[in-house]
Sequence to fold (696 residues):
Amino acid sequence: MIIAQRKPLEEIKEMVASYEKVLVLGCGTCVAVCFAGGEKEAKLLASELRMARQMEGKSTQIIDHTIQRQCEWEFIDPIKELVASVDAVVSTACGIGVQGMAERFEDKPIFPGVNTTFLGMPVQPGEFVERCQACGDCILDLTGGVCPVARCAKSLMNGPCGGSQNGKCEVNPETPCAWQLIYDRLAKLGQLERMMEIMPAKDWSTSRDGGLRKIIREDLKL
Amino acid sequence: MSETPFEPEITAFVCQYCGDMAADSAGWNRISYPANVKIVRLPCTGKVDVHHILNAFEHGADGVYVVACPEGNCHHINGNLSAKRRVTYAKSLLDEVGVGGNRLEMFHVTAAQGDEFARIAAEMTERIRALGPSPVRRAMGKSSG
Amino acid sequence: MSGDNGKELVVGSKLERLLKAGHFVVTGELGPPQNADRSVIEKKAGYLRDAVDAVNITDNQTAVVRMCSMAVAKMLIDLGIEPIMQMTCRDRNRIAIQSDLLGAYALGVRNLLCLTGDHQSFGNHPQAKNVHDLDSITLIQMVRQMRDAKKFQCGEEIKGQEPRFFIGGAINPFADPFDFRPFRLAKKVKAGVEFVQSQLIFNVPKFREYMKRCGDLGLLDKVYILAGVGPIKSLAAARYMATSVPGMDVPQEYIDRMANAVKGIPQEDKKARREAWEREGIKICAEIIQQVKEIPGVAGVHIMAIEWESAVPEIVKEAGLLPRPKLEA
Fold:
């Protein structure tokens, strides 16, 4: 899922400094699952902002509300009146949600309350790791289910490089070398000969490099 | 106008087992503790959420503490461990806001430790008295004045 | 085009000719300056000129910004020294790389070392955008395709002169997984590499084992392998390499020798201590050269004396490799 991390309070305070009535809008999907911007986190942020602004002698009209997700119009549309009643919104949704809100409520400042960091999963409670780069051309069938684009610091197609040591990446001794993982996984699957095949240079045009991506599904249009 | 000396307003979240029983023990043994402490009884300190703590400070508490069963002896197995993690997190948020994480604390007692319960109440009251009113409470006082 | 030993020449660079004529070659390394001043190149080149057959010019090594390899390669050509230009995948995409290769060939560069590149977090610009459009293997493939198939990476024909390089790569016999390393060389050979230089060798037995496995894979007559060697400058340097450099395997005996080198010299005589260490470091390097020279399949050595280029002539001399061979034009 999308993993995010709440921005420091100082940054958020600065964003809403000149606004009287502020809505902290939480999102009940990805950011709730990674405990960055769900209902609870939105309530906490609202409470922190009220206390901080009380101490600064500013208006403490900070309210909070949470919708199922901020990346679908059907959940955004019903809060039209609520948004109209405030001067600014701090959205604790991921960048997609913030932009969804901004597109729907063009005349209202919508501020990001979290930094959207990566696509990943919690490998254990409290530990979130990056797994996917959304490159648009998945090769996990060839690499034993380990992604070299996201998990290799150099996105090598033919790794490991010479910096792989004791199964760790030269960039960070705590980061597993993706190509060591691929090697081990292919060995377990009895597919080690794949390591000898030269993977061609990647076509990056399906990734962000090729420009903003879009998918049209005629069968889903109303 | 005479200045009324500052009397700390303190909220204590206690579990209904060791925490509250220790409060009772203090009562039976006629060990008094400061009236500054208002007790909120919960089935387990594991029920204490970070926003209960922030809520207390938002509404003018100068200090907050949690009284739980000893580690390994929680009636609900590890509710007190959850509480401990949340108290640590809440401290960081209170530092971030500028209220100060040292106004929040976590303690463990057994049911029979009435004297310990009273000592904790006195300790926190004096700690908060030394720190002065919470900046939120002070700001509330100014705006209403 | 036929070489000095009847072996067919593909590019005709001095390095290719020496290797194909069966000489035990010696290559050196030059680190460009972190500024735009070319005078230091001439000074460093002066040390290396008669001591080595060709000189590597690093490409923003450890992701620290330095004068580009191509510019320095041209300067060396003008000084009459054979350059080996280095190209990493860290900073340039395939468009920039191919463009640089066209220019490099036009300037007279004939040897190219294809590398992945150290990660930018090691350098002085960790906030830069990470390129890595290609890796060392797809880079080797591309360079080979430009030369032999006269095609750009996209498949388009190169009309007119194609860039023709003697293609090199790097190997690290000491990286993990160790079992895979000989296969990785096989992969590079499959991609089209013609010579490789190894990471610094101190653990000769481990390197011997690696070479044996390469032999088992039938690689030794398909690629020229140059053993990487380098002088240790001090005891502190020995300890640092042993403990803090990833992929560096320094046996205890060398650390002990460096420690013993200053026995009897008073602590305050810093100059004498430094000289004693340097002498021992050079001695060890020459010994390692002698040892690896005996290993089947080792076609030469690559001497890396980072910021100590002046040591190279002494090392080559002590290893008994002077004078360097001269080729008729």
Q: What stands out?
A: Residues 106 and 163 of chain C are 8 Å apart (CA to CA).
